[in-house]
Write a structure and sequence with these properties.
eight-stranded mixed beta sheet; 38% helix; disordered N terminus; RNA-binding; 19% strand; alpha+beta; 464 residues
RNA sequence: GUGGCUAUAGUUUAACGGUAGAACAGUGGGUUGUGGUCCCACUAGCCUGGGUUCAACUCCCAGUAGCCACCCCA
């Protein structure tokens, strides 16, 4: 028998081209189990054990959004491919090699969003939000997709949250966003380093680009292949090169801050003034250039603070970044609309939070665990759950379980503060036992008063 | 996208060219109405495919996935 299987497989195997690894393996009649599945490369399940980290980050993000006046917006995960081509820029890595794009059944060119700003601007224009009081401030939290090679902190399906303010030129907006994130990250228990730069407006950038290209052209022979290409296609990104041979050229390169026009320089200076005033510590980084084409003027990135010891040669990954994009709305067919925004990587934040051993508030710790014994008690449980819940208590239970031992074991494991025991005897007496899970003491109370008593006990506890 | 390293129960891992042991977790019991300690039992695994070999979890090749560096960025 076993031999037969082998022979069949041997015949089959060569037919399965290595090109199509995901093709369903045809199972011989004797194969017992269907093959199992796993998540796609670079995409992972966020399991219940991770919940506390996600709740922590999500909770802080939403809280800051509320307090700074940013309203939640949700946009579809799927968008027209051209939106990102145009917004992010066809020359960027994100668009040129990392998009999950395909033609849908209707022949439409669509893709999974690689970032959120383009969608928000699209939505702003589509719904005529320029008629709302400006600025219109958005907050988002959701999955993004980039077909990159996965690594720790770099997934193909990952989550970002961010803040975007559209319709306001004032430099205080740039400062507000940086200040907000600065505090948010500190609230998450992270030490961070803010890098900031201004890349000017299209006008002053044009003048600067000429200087930059001239500077680099003289040293063209020393440059790496990528840089030679950048020199022609996207000179700003020359400053982003990490190739060793290109470093000397980079260090001596003219700095854009010296070429900013009056308006851009003024704007940048004011942003920095506001940050100084707010006590945000930052580093000016004349070489900071973002990977998306739509940025103008202020750009910034947030890095984890490198703690002196054992830092590898590698540069730490950015936890988030953003900047002003005054030209984007117009690029996307809207009226000229100044704007500024930021995005943060949730998985990266969580990785860092774990690494730093930040104290995370526990999740799902119920006030009361309900233990039942016997059918009669089980039937009475539902209404008890509701009365407790309506009284504002969190309740837990395992109604399908039988023994009391088992149920208390569960109560203990999940950390319930009190256990409520309801069995045959209690049903007959019209009572219930309240057990203090920490001290092990218990008391019998009238069934009608249970909710009241538990509530009082919990209140007393919190006062302590 | 390029290069390197890795792959054993749910998790963390051990050993071996003659197909595997443990710890934690899970389930059941000791204690049939009382958890956190303890004791016992059970469940459960060599990533996939091919090759070498009398024999492959072990060696070789390929695929897949993870990690690391580059690249890029969140």
């Amino acid at each position: 028998m076993a031999k037969k299987i082998k022979i069949q497989k041997k015949i089959k195997k060569p037919k399965i081209a290595a090109k199509k690894p995901r093709k369903e393996r045809s199972s011989s009649a004797e194969t017992k189990k269907p093959r199992s599945f796993q998540s796609l490369r670079g995409m992972k399940d966020i399991l219940p054990g991770e919940a506390k980290y996600w709740n922590f980050v999500r909770g802080k993000a939403f809280n800051f959004a509320d307090n700074y006046g940013y309203d939640l917006i949700e946009t579809p995960v799927l968008e027209e491919t051209a939106l990102f081509n145009r917004a992010v820029g066809g020359e960027t890595d994100i668009v040129s090699k990392e998009m999950f794009s395909f033609v849908d059944r209707g022949g439409e060119n669509v893709c999974l969003r690689p970032e959120e700003t383009a969608s928000i601007v699209r939505s702003y224009i589509q719904h005529g939000m320029l008629n709302l009081p400006q600025p219109v401030k958005f907050f988002y939290f959701g999955p993004m997709f980039r077909h990159d090679r996965p690594q720790a902190g770099r997934l193909r399906a990952f989550h970002q949250f961010g803040f975007e303010a559209l319709g306001e030129t004032h430099p205080i907006i740039d400062a507000e966003i940086i200040f907000l994130i600065y505090n948010l990250l500190q609230d998450l228990g992270l030490k961070i380093n803010v890098q900031i730069n201004s890349i000017g407006c299209p006008k002053c950038r044009e003048a600067y680009k000429v200087k930059l290209v001239n500077h680099y052209r003289d040293r063209k022979s020393d440059l790496c292949e990528d840089c030679k290409r950048r020199l022609v296609k996207n000179p700003m990104r020359l400053l982003d090169c990490k190739e060793e041979g290109c470093q000397p050229a980079k260090e001596e390169a003219p700095q854009i801050v010296d070429y900013l026009c009056e308006d851009c320089k003024n704007h940048f200076v004011r942003v920095l003034e506001y940050l100084d005033e707010a006590g945000v510590s930052y580093n000016l980084n004349p070489q900071l250039v973002r990977g998306l084409d739509y940025y103008t003027k202020t750009v910034f990135e947030f890095f984890p603070e490198v703690s002196g010891e054992s830092q590898g040669s590698g540069k730490p990954d950015a936890l988030g970044g953003g900047g002003r994009y005054d030209g984007l709305a117009e690029i996307l067919g809207g009226r000229p609309t100044p704007a500024c925004g930021v995005a943060l990587g949730v998985e990266r934040l969580i990785l860092k939070i774990k690494e730093m051993n930040v104290n995370i508030p526990p999740v799902n710790v119920p006030d009361v665990y309900l233990a039942q014994l016997g059918e009669q008690a089980r039937k009475k449980i539902f209404s008890l759950i509701e009365s407790l819940r309506k009284a504002g208590l969190t309740v837990s239970h395992s109604l399908s379980k039988e023994g009391l031992k088992k149920q208390l074991e569960i109560a203990n494991k999940i950390g319930a503060k009190y256990a409520l025991i309801l069995g045959q005897k209690e049903i007959l007496d019209g009572t219930s036992i309240i057990r203090d899970m920490e001290g092990g003491t218990q008391e019998i109370v009238n069934f009608d008063k249970v909710v009241q008593v538990v509530r009082k006990k919990l209140a007393g506890e919190t006062i302590k």
